[in-house]
Amino acid sequence: MAGLVFRRFTAKRFQIMTAKTDPTTKQERQLLSDHVDLRIIAADTDEALADRNAIVQLDPDHPGFRDQEYRARRNQIAQLALSYRPGQTIPDAPYTMEEHQVWRTIWKALGPAHQKHACAEYLASLQRLSFDPDRIPQLREVNERVQAISGFRLEPVAGLVQPRVFLENLANGVFLCTQYIRHHSTPLYTPEPDVVHEIVGHGVTLASERLAELNRLFGEAVKSTTSPDSLNRLSRVYWFTIEFGVLRENGNVKAYGTGLLSSAGELEEMHKADLRPFDVAAASRQEYDPTHFQPVLFCADSFEAMYQTLRQYLLSREGR
Q1: Crossing angle, helix 209-223 and helix 303-317, to 10 degrees?
Q2: pTM for the predicted model, two decimal places
């Protein structure tokens, strides 16, 4: 995949990219799509000046495409993000009782999966944020807690955001978040990153000072990298660490990647992957397919080993 592989792409672009090569059936895609936030895009250098907000358009095969009330609420939430200015209080999203039920359904699956498969660093951060399992937490609430812990700010965006914009904000300690939630008809499937992935995946990891530091260093490394080959290598390292990183604790494989931690299905499937020793150089060369469960993962010997190795790698890339 040419260019920087990182942040959001529309369902339409995804279909164009995979139509000729993806043998996965529609049913399989629905089962698999929750394991990836689908923010994968081939970034061109002229995207750097794109605005941080763009209204999300639902494809005809989106679960909520024919639900006028859902679409109206999505637009309302998008408008809240468009009117937001950094430094202001984040406006609350108008979630319905039906959508809170979606959150409860997801949490019933994720809660036990986290206890079984998540690393200790993630579980400690999850406890700090103390989510209510019965209601969707407002981004405002999560932001206040995360900022007090790591200094990272969570700020709302309407939907699509260009990768360069996203990463430049990441370098500055800002994580751009969507606030909408997936359609109630498919609580364990979402065709695009929603508030569940943002908060349960990225939000929790940013409540860890060390994981927050790695996110910031990734942003700084990308911000100072201009070579397309270097950007591609860095993007693969991001994929196999921040999104799909695993490590060993007391002899057991545990997850620290957000793509794993926001999906109960992916947490179960990770044990079937080819677990290779944690090697950043090898990860930078490893191709991946975001439309399938990951057949290859890079497993660190411990959280500390992963943190120190990845930190040194990212620091060494600054200015390159």
Answers
A1: 20
A2: 0.81
